[in-house]
Design a protein that fits this description.
It catalyses: 2'-deoxyribonucleotide-(2'-deoxyribose 5'-phosphate)-2'-deoxyribonucleotide-DNA = a 3'-end 2'-deoxyribonucleotide-(2,3-dehydro-2,3-deoxyribose 5'-phosphate)-DNA + a 5'-end 5'-phospho-2'-deoxyribonucleoside-DNA + H(+). InterPro entries: DNA_glycosylase, Endonuclease-III-like_CS2, Endonuclease3_FeS-loop_motif, HhH-GPD_domain, HhH_base_excis_C, HhH_motif, Nth. With about 220 residues, this protein is mostly helical. The chain has 10 helices and no strands. The chain is globular. The relative contact order is 0.13.
Length: about 220
């Protein structure tokens, strides 16, 4: 895909949604960190349901740490891998309290040192909470990048590297959100809605889905 196509794609995505953001519900960087940590292999909807119960009771490192693993589990047990996530969350809170004065660190190295926080989670926090032009590559973004030809790659690291290289600078801050929303609602996994896609004429996916007969 050439640079002119990429520019037009992101121009259209921005025109449709000028101020995109995560669908996870949060009010502080810490709430976002925990929500993203809980969202691994889970839907944003399921995480939001859990945090709506949790955050009115405990929404700081100290308050969640005071719950302990057994106290936290009832709030998040509807989320997949909740036992592991409960342990990681409590340990993350301990590290934040002991090493960062209860604040979410603003460097990738410090974020990735937290239990359960990998590169993708760190990228989300850096981008959404702190306004860094990072791009977190999840399954949606990996699929969209490869299927459209925006930034094809064999693994998430290559796709991230190519997105950072190819996405025009003016669009890098919000590219993560545009691509994930596009993958979540239009360029879906099994049967992409090519017939209802605003960038279909620019997309290099050859087997585009025709308009269904019942639509």
């Amino acid at each position: 895909m050439n640079a002119n196509k990429r520019l037009e794609i992101f121009t259209r995505l921005r025109a449709q949604n000028p101020h995109p953001t995560t669908e996870l519900e949060y009010t502080t960087p810490f709430e976002l960190l925990i929500a993203v940590l809980l969202s691994a292999q889970a839907t944003d909807v399921s995480v939001n349901k859990a945090t709506k119960r949790l955050y009115p009771i405990a929404n700081t490192p100290q308050k969640i740490f005071d719950l302990g693993v057994d106290g936290l589990i009832p709030y998040i047990q509807t989320i997949g891998l909740f036992r592991t996530k409960a342990k990681n969350t409590i340990e993350t809170c301990r590290i934040l309290l002991e090493q960062h004065k209860g604040e979410v660190p603003r460097t990738r190295e410090a974020l990735e040192a937290l239990p359960g926080v990998g590169r993708k989670t760190a990228n989300v926090v850096l981008n959404t909470a702190f306004g860094e032009p990072t791009i977190a590559v999840d399954t949606h973004i990996f699929r969209v990048s490869n299927r459209t030809g925006i930034a094809p790659g064999k693994n998430v690291d290559i796709v991230e590297e190519r997105l950072l290289k190819f996405v025009p600078n003016d669009f890098k801050l919000d590219a993560h959100h545009w691509l994930i929303l596009h993958g979540r609602y239009t360029c879906i996994a099994r049967t992409p809605k090519c017939w209802n896609c605003m960038i279909a004429d620019l997309c290099e996916f050859k087997q585009k889905t025709p308009l269904p007969e019942n639509v």
